[in-house]
């Protein structure tokens, strides 16, 4: 894991990068990194749990069909939000596509979400804002 | 699990009919007729630290796939075919969990303790607590709280019917009442998402939770309050239901 951004807020966001084999058994690391950052941002337990479900849902869209290769995750820490982008690199067997159901779930879980894919690369992006109770 | 000759003949006819018509009622009858097989196979995997109920649901997904894919004119008995599919589904379930399943005992215990702390803090604060607040109250680090949340998801030691950590699980009457009111809306939304057969395989409580969270937009805490179960229990049931729906939808 590397920290690519700067923490002093001088013109940039903190950015954390994580690269994983495209296999479900490593999804845990994607979640733990996200929840660690969300916790630092002051997300509530509810929001952290929603974030975990959203990551599972989006990662499944990316690698759920027996993908091979590598998933690169970028976590951008905004002042009041966490943005996560996942990129699968390798031959894309099946471009990620959200079912209507997945789409509805994600709408409830996070503020923004999208997936897209081409021949050699597929990505998802989510953004979840902190809600102050 | 064994059928007599008459029953076998009747089932063969039903499979032939289903192959022809793909009728949903026939499909449900076939699933129901073989649910015992799913339960039997799930039990064979139940000594690996997971609640039997969870495994039965995984096995049911396998059964559903088997019913959908079975080709009666291939000359293979359905039970043989289904056993392969169901065992495959169970094996995949364990494989996908990987090393997350081996959560340390200390984390399992913290997870159970946190359930109680979350309930108390939510009541005190009038909102869902933050992770630092939870850590302070439980006198552990933030990392330990997050680790325990992961452990809770990977490791479902509590059966669905067992009391949830920190919650009073008295939902016998409430559930029926809740479900009655929402049936129509729920059915419509499901039909739209064409997930009806998959969702209807889930226990009623999970169906209600999915409905509240995704069709009515209630938060996990609000659902916990309405159902009288702990927030952690809601979260665990949600995560599991979604994973099961994903697994089941994968090949459709």
Provide the helix percentage of chain A.
Answer: 25-40%
Described by strand count, sense and barrel closure, the largest sheet of chain A is: 6 strands, antiparallel
Q: What structural category do the secondary elements of chain B indicate?
A: mainly alpha
How many runs of DSSP E, i.e. beta strands of chain B?
0
Count every helix of chain B, treating DSSP H or I runs of 4 or more residues as helices: 13
Describe the structure in your own words.
Chain A has 133 residues and is α+β, with helices and mostly antiparallel strands. Helix content of chain A is 32%, strand content 32%. Chain A has three helices and six strands. In chain A, strands 1-2-3-4-6-5 form a six-stranded antiparallel beta sheet, with helices on one face. In chain A, helix 2 runs antiparallel to helix 3. Chain A is globular and about 40 Å long. With 252 residues, chain B is mainly α. Helices cover 72% and strands 0% of the residues of chain B. Chain B is built from 13 helices and no strands. Chain B has helices at 5-21, 24-33, 35-44, 52-69, 78-97, 105-125, 131-138, 142-154, 172-193, 196-199, 204-215, 220-227, 231-249. In chain B, helix 4 (52-69) packs parallel to helix 13, helix 6 crosses helix 7 (131-138) and helix 6 packs across helix 8 (142-154). The longest helix of chain B is centred in the C-terminal third of the chain and has 22 residues, at 172-193. Chain B is elongated and about 65 Å long. Chains A and B meet through helix 1, helix 2 and helix 3 of A and helix 5, helix 7, helix 8, helix 11 and helix 13 of B.
What's the helix and strand layout?
The complex is a heterodimer of chains A (133) and B (252).
Chain A lengths: L1 E2 L10 E8 L5 H14 L4 H19 L6 E8 L3 E9 L10 H10 L2 E6 L3 E9 L4
Antiparallel strand pairs in A: 1-2, 2-3, 3-4, 4-6, 5-6
Helix pairs in contact in A: 1-2, 2-3
Chain B lengths: L4 H17 L2 H10 L1 H10 L7 H18 L8 H20 L7 H21 L5 H8 L3 H13 L17 H22 L2 H4 L4 H12 L4 H8 L3 H19 L3
Helix pairs in contact in B: 1-2, 3-4, 3-5, 4-5, 4-13, 6-7, 6-8, 7-8, 9-11, 12-13
